[in-house]
Amino acid sequence: MKVIYISIAVVIIDQLTKIFVKGFSIPFLNFNFDGMYYGQSIPVIGDFFKLTYIENPGMAFGFDPGDGFKLAISLFSLAASIGLLIYLYAIRNKSLSLRIAIAFILGGAVGNLIDRTFYGVLFGYAPLFYGRVVDFFDFDFFDFTLFGRSYDRWPIFNIADAAVSIGVIILILFYKKHEEEKELEKSLVTVTPVTADSTNQIKPDELTSAETFINTAEETNEQTDNRKEVSD
């Protein structure tokens, strides 16, 4: 379960970057960090890569299902995160690539779940489970259309989104290996060792009887040999 540290690292890095983008304050230290204002864009590599602060109101790629579905999405994200954690424990003895992939996906799911669950309350704009996800990575790749919307840049995303994508890519790259591992496990389950069954089926009293029979046979052979020597 050491791969769980990957999930923890993803969550920590994701939340730290979001807080620095969004800004934060520590009242008892009289400290305030403004961060970026909503919609602000800071060029990093010209127009190709910028830091642009937005908040995702719903699902991926900025798709907004409406307030009526936000609670369902948050609860589904919570259930999915718990399921991934249980699954990660269940595959603790499986291949490393599979465990790493699930650890990345789990970290990303939890990172965005924190936004949806707590950010509305922490920043005072929505009740529990109705928060918005903070996004800021802004890349200019190519024009495309998705879910009926046209994009001239790649949809703005965050560390959690990137972690989920990395996990999925690892699953795709090592898909064949994972399938071979499943087939090997199935074959090991269906094939039963003969020696193991035979040993398990022999009872202690049967072993004792067999030993007695062998000893008797040996004594009979010795007596026969002795008679032959006397007759000779």
Write up this protein.
- The chain has two domains: 186 residues, no CATH class; 32 residues.
- The strands form three sheets. Strands 3-4-5 form a three-stranded antiparallel beta sheet.
- The protein is an alpha+beta fold and 232 residues long.
- It is built from seven helices and seven strands; from the N terminus they run αββββααβββαααα.
- The relative contact order is 0.12.
- A hairpin with a 2-residue loop joins strand 6 and strand 7.
Question: What characteristics describe this protein?
Answer:
globular; 7 helices
Describe how the helices and strands are arranged.
Blueprint: H1 4-22, E1 24-26, E2 31-33, E3 41-45, E4 49-56, H2 67-90, H3 96-122, E5 133-139, E6 144-146, E7 149-151, H4 159-173, H5 175-190, H6 194-201, H7 204-231
Antiparallel strand pairs: 1-2, 3-4, 4-5, 6-7
Helix pairs in contact: 1-3, 2-3, 3-4
In total, the number of strands is 7
Sketch the topology as an H/E string, one letter per element: HEEEEHHEEEHHHH
Radius of gyration: 32 Å
The number of distinct structural domains comes to 2
Mean pLDDT: 83
Q: Structural class of the helices, strands and pairings?
A: alpha+beta
What fraction strand?
A: 5-15%
The helix count comes to 7
| Fraction of residues in H or I helices | 55-70%
Shape: globular
How far the N terminus sits from the C terminus, by CA atoms, comes to: 77 Å
Instruction: Summarize the main sheet.
Output: 3 strands, antiparallel
